[in-house]
Amino acid sequence: MPTFSLEQLQRLAQQIFAGCGAPPAEANLVAEHLVESSVMGIDSHGVMRIPQYVDNVRRGVVKPGSPVSIVKDGEANLLLDCNFNFGQIGGTKAAELAIRRAGRYGVTSVAVKNCNHTGRIGAYVQSIAKAGMIGLAMSNGPKNGHSVAPFGGREARLATNPIAFAAPTSGEPILMDISTSITSEGKIRLHRDEGRQLPGGWILDGKGEPSCNPRDFYAAPRGTILPLGGSAGYKGFSLATMVEILAGTLSGQCITSQGDEHNGLWILAISVESILGLASFTESLGALIHYLKSSAPAANSSGARLPGEPEFETARVRREQGIEIHDATWSDICRISRELNVEV
Amino acid sequence: MPTFSLEQLQRLAQQIFAGCGAPPAEANLVAEHLVESSVMGIDSHGVMRIPQYVDNVRRGVVKPGSPVSIVKDGEANLLLDCNFNFGQIGGTKAAELAIRRAGRYGVTSVAVKNCNHTGRIGAYVQSIAKAGMIGLAMSNGPKNGHSVAPFGGREARLATNPIAFAAPTSGEPILMDISTSITSEGKIRLHRDEGRQLPGGWILDGKGEPSCNPRDFYAAPRGTILPLGGSAGYKGFSLATMVEILAGTLSGQCITSQGDEHNGLWILAISVESILGLASFTESLGALIHYLKSSAPAANSSGARLPGEPEFETARVRREQGIEIHDATWSDICRISRELNVEV
């Protein structure tokens, strides 16, 4: 697999997005978002998305340069319209607004409709934590991509509906970024392609029976991914429903629209300053971190790791040693670069 | 098992709390909270708590009549001190304040410290949904009651740290109220007392090995409950950490205080009115509900049920047919009533 530095990937991704019509600042922002995900080891949300995003621009689904507008301005409660620009443009603007308004009101909620792929939603809460605030974000997905069954059902009614949370510390933030399903479609595909059985409790086949055969997920009728929680899967389903209501119903990005390919997003910023003061908060959070990590390791484990810790470790390694790109992804990126006259 | 009407239990519980020193309005509120939990079938948070609460008053841990004070007032971001009154008094005041301020600012966050047992935190978000808003609530627990291991650890570092969420519909609200652990101590105790093995993935023994023997949980060294998620238990641990940060670190109810028996609570209210209008929101949520419930049933299931649906069904039955109380709980309640000269 070819290996690249962060700077190489950033320059290339920026030129590709600029080459397909994004204004320079937007091209730069989307490139940074994807490259940072790759750096952190979240490859499913990294530069492998470049070909998909370019394809979406060509199909007219993504409209680069489209302004993100404020539809409703209720002081600490806002509704934005991403107007079909890259999801990262809407998400970044929403996080900036949430930070600014939370500085004034103490807390701010921002819902965003008509986003394209919102990318790694951890990025938005990470920027809120960087501003010394607590961030919470959720994102839904359009009907045509639904793969997760409600607990008790056998037909997909939800996307993997992620929840992200971040809080500032004296070092790297606490950074959670999880889907509310037990796994993702990408992991099922990997098992299928490698000829491996799935762990129990991941999917139902099209008849609603538990299955460990990854091919059952892609058969007709389609299988479904189970919500987080196993026998307590009503918990994962409840969390996914909460995400759907905040990111979808509240934003007006209704899950039920047929043929719609877009995402809704919800972001909350809470000022720590107006309650405890940032220094006192991070000191107290430092004590919590120490306490959590002091739990002796379970069998076959090296001990508790904080939300975000594995990703920040990967980022340290990849910043130094470079980022490996899968051959198939690299070949796609090279093809697109040629088509756009971007020098690789 | 003796069976009672809602009114009988309400009158009795109210008189017991008044009898041990709570002002009438507080006695009434705590009684209503516990009886409603029993009516909804959430018996672990219902009238079986009466003896524990009375004991806490006698030990001076709960201070009835203590005023709930505003420590910091940052417009849409507040910190309250429950001042060791019943947790329900602080929680109810926090929800009322959140609703009032969210009416002004669009959204409001309220953290509360020095609560006693916060009870069923679903009650607070339910009251927010009743006011036509979206509610979110989380609660942490003191160190001496920690039973949940961080993912990868074998020593308990968290309580079952629940998350509750509610949204208004044209009928009963969507109502989620879940712990972020795979199970509760009460369910492990039930398996032990009935001589049954636990399902796999619920606990680790004191050496950090997976176990299905409920006695391992109570042995020395103590076993621990696993976070929600099974092999994806980092997700449950991440959610529990988020709860700890919002309900504990932000409120100043630090998890790390030794000997402290109190809880922290965090409540958020989001106005729907200023974004979509309530009628438009509930119409859109109605379409989501219809879509979720239209998923054909999985094998051995009667189909998807909404968050809160089983509890509202139980409430309909119990309002009509009365509430059965376990003999042991009833005998405890009778003993306390005699001691307080309350007529049963």
Question: Care to give the gist of this entry?
Answer:
Chain A has 344 residues and is an alpha+beta fold. Chain A contains 11 helices and 12 strands.
Q: What distinguishing features does this structure have?
A:
homodimer; 344 residues; alpha+beta; 3-stranded antiparallel beta sheet; 12 strands; 41% helix
Provide an overview of this structure.
The structure is a homodimer of 344-residue chains. The mean pLDDT of chain A is 96. Chain A is of the alpha+beta class and 344 residues long. Chain A has a 7-stranded mixed beta sheet with strand order 2-3-4-11-5-6-7, with helices on both faces. A 3-stranded antiparallel beta sheet of chain A has the order 9-8-10. In chain A, strands 1-12 form a two-stranded antiparallel sheet. In chain A, a hairpin with a 6-residue loop joins strand 6 (163-167) and strand 7. Helix content of chain A is 41%, strand content 16%. In chain A, helix 1 runs antiparallel to helix 2 (24-39). Chain A is globular. Chains A and B meet through strand 3, helix 4, strand 4, strand 6 and strand 7 of A and strand 3, helix 4, strand 4, strand 6 and strand 7 of B.
